[in-house]
Amino acid sequence: MTAHAADLKPANVSLAGGLLSIWIAVYSSATTGRAATAATAAQRRASLFALKDQLFDNLLTLAKMFKNDEDKADLYCPQHLLEDVKQTPAPVLLSPTPPPV
Fold first, then answer.
1. In whole angstroms, what is the distance from residue 19 CA to residue 23 CA?
2. Nearest to residue 76, comparing CAs of 86, 57, 62, 61?
3. For residue 13, what are the contacts with CB-CB under 8 A and spacing of at least 6?
4. Helix, strand, coil shares, percent, the chain, to 5
5. Higher pLDDT residue, 90 or 44?
6. CA–CA separation, 76 vs 19, rounded Å?
7. Quick count: other Cβ atoms within 10 Å of Cβ 12?
8. Are 44 and 36 in contact (CB under 8 A)?
9. Is 80 in a helix, a strand, or coil?
């Protein structure tokens, strides 16, 4: 557009310049948004690993403190928390029937 500005109406050149600046702003915000999402995902992943590490350390500490004491093992590590949670199917939502005419 700049190379042909002399052959075009000033309003068209101005409009093209405005569109360019708008697209640069849109692209910049979209790129920033993707980067923030990736950073947030990385932070969540790092937090999850830190939590897993801490829970494992706690388990080893309890095992060391209460060696061969099954009552304490049941108290601090209930078996039902170590088992898989059974997934229940989601309820089927029926759409309401229209009132009679």
1. 6
2. 62
3. 1, 2, 5
4. 70, 0, 30
5. 44
6. 63
7. 13
8. no
9. helix
Neighbours of 70 (CB within 10 A): 8
For residue 92, pLDDT beyond 70: no
Q: What residue has token string 């059974």?
A: 86
Cα–chain center distance at 64: 37
Q: What are the structure tokens assigned to 71, written together?
A: 């009552």
- pLDDT 10s digits, 67-77: 888 787 777 77
pTM for the whole structure: 0.41
Asked if residue 1 lies in contact with residue 8, where contact means CB atoms within 8 angstroms, the answer is yes
